[in-house]
Amino acid sequence: MDLRTVTLVEAEEDEDGSDDDEDDCCSSSVPTFNVPYLPRLCLTFLCVCLFRYVVVSGTPLKILEHLLSDLRLDDQRGLLLDDFLLTYLVFMTTNDLCQALLGQYPLHTDGKEALYRKRKVLHLVAHWTRLYKDFLREDEHIKAFMKVGGDTHRFGNQFVRVIAAPLTDSELSRRTVRLLGINTWDMAAVLTQLDWNLFNSIHEQELVYSTMSCSTGGSHREGLSVLLQRCNEVQQWVMSEVLMCVSLNKRVQLLKKFIKIAAHCKAQRNLNSAFAIIMGLNTAAVSRLNITWEKVPGKFKKIFSELELITDPSLNHKAYRDAFKKMKPPKIPFMPLLLKDITFIHEGNKTFQDNLVNFQKLHMIADTVRLIRHCQSDQLGMLSLSVSLSVCQCLASVHYLHIIDNQQTLFQLSHKLEPRA
Q1: Which of 25, 47, 186, 421 is deepest in the core (most CB within 10 A)?
Q2: Where is the Ras-GEF domain (predicted)?
């Protein structure tokens, strides 16, 4: 390989064979690195539309370091990030990228700088998984990489969370303002689209593997486990956003916002997120905020009361089952309840009777599992997202959820907002 050094200026001149003055304004402020000569695609990133960036050259590690250094979590453009992830295979292997990201990922969260660095790496990984989707699933290096930090961060999903990350008052205020400014229908549509992408990847056999705890089915339960985890995280997200909001008026606005999003999710036939949001608002740490709830307008309380009916467990969740049965496919069920039904059939009926297979039990399980096939039918009827500024804002919010999953911390925040009488 030719080990020529490629600098920023040389890369610009080689691109069009000239030395235009119009590029001089930016050439001096961008760092350059001495690197082995690599294919042009990995060294030159073109300027596109208004979201222009200058050429970045360097070793793969230095380019990644520069990318993470300049990465902004609220940046909707992501052009350089997108280009890097689309072309990295030209100049480095997937294993090299995994190792490089691990090198950039602090092992400890002591200090705001280390935490912010982690959030940047997570932001990059979330974008990477969105771009490559199933192409990353079977790569052994990816599987090993995704396990790192698995107890505190969700890598392999279509959104990423950070747990109990300390934010300043100004950061919390900005987060709340951004969330309050988001269109509720678009937010519900984004939640529905992301849930659908996960739900639609689930195979019927996954429910059987999960219920039977088959040792051979571990690799076949990934989609199901991710969707179940997603439901929990949406619930925790709702709780966290409300309890991190120190302003009473804004907290009331947040409750109204989440009630509307839950109603829209139900209207869009996504009972997975609808359930999650309703349960998040119904948790003890949120429901005890009497002063806050008293200021919620009556019409929103009425909407919430109607929504609560679908989570009523009485008569074997009759309200939910009736409502869901009336919905035409495609639709997204509340997956924990579906798993509960299958588990009840499995544990409540013998597999063998007089050394003969109890086929009636198998039929009941299969009949329940086939609900997945029914819900996934008529896929063209699923809501498709239009690209708009509002949708982009929603995607940014949903792809990066700030979550506190410590119940003691949540109750401390709750009592701090409204002390016990």
Answers
A1: 186
A2: 183-420
pTM above 0.90, yes or no: no
- Domain limits for position 195: 169-417
Are the C-beta atoms of 297 and 256 separated by less than 8 Å?
Answer: yes
Same domain, 16 and 95: yes
Residue 138: CB atoms within 10 Å: 9
- Residue 188, domain CATH: 1.10.840.10
pLDDT digits (tens, 9 = 90+) for 408-418: 989 999 999 99
Domains held by the chain: number: 2
Amino acid at 299: K
Residues 368 and 252 in one domain: yes
Q: Which of 117, 150, 183 lies at the terminal end of a domain, its last residue? A: 150
Q: How many CA atoms lie within 13 A of 380 on its CB side?
A: 0
- Residue 332 inside a domain? The answer is yes
